[in-house]
Amino acid sequence: VSNSLPLFLKYSVKSLFLKWLYQTVENLKYDSRKEKVISFAWQYVLLVVSLFVMTFGVALCVRSNLGCSVISTIPFVMSQAGESGLVAALTIGEYTYIMNGLLVLLQILILRKKFELVQSLQLVIGFVFGYFLDLNMSVTSMFDYSTIWSHLAYRWKSVAVR
Fold first, then answer.
1. CA of residue 151 relative to chain centroid, distance
2. Is this structure's pTM higher than 0.90?
3. 127-137 burial by CB neighbour count: b if 16+ within 10 A, else e?
4. Residue 38 CA to chain centroid, in angstroms?
């Protein structure tokens, strides 16, 4: 009987240790998942804020009449042609979204089976970019760009923002 007591304690301590180890590993898995979710959410918040700041810079460039960024050149020209009645009268943001859709379509045609479905999320980002561009174009419409100094000041602001 005296030999069975230490053997019982030995297995009890071992089982308690294994239970503790298992729970610790499970908690680490949970914490890891929780950290991944927080990291994922934080990355998308930063992406949205970055898109807003970038489109604000593009809007300032366009409003200053001193040029626009490369990505916005075709949509800007098409929106100007729309105001003249040469093409459909869409905003620069709507033309940006259309151009992005065409570029993704070309990517699908080029890559074919190598195109991964997750890459179609570019369309969502393009839509958000176009929406923010239209929003910032309306926000910057209240600024006066009648003098060369105001043109230069807004141009430098847009360069600093981008």
1. 29
2. no
3. bbbbbbbbebb
4. 16
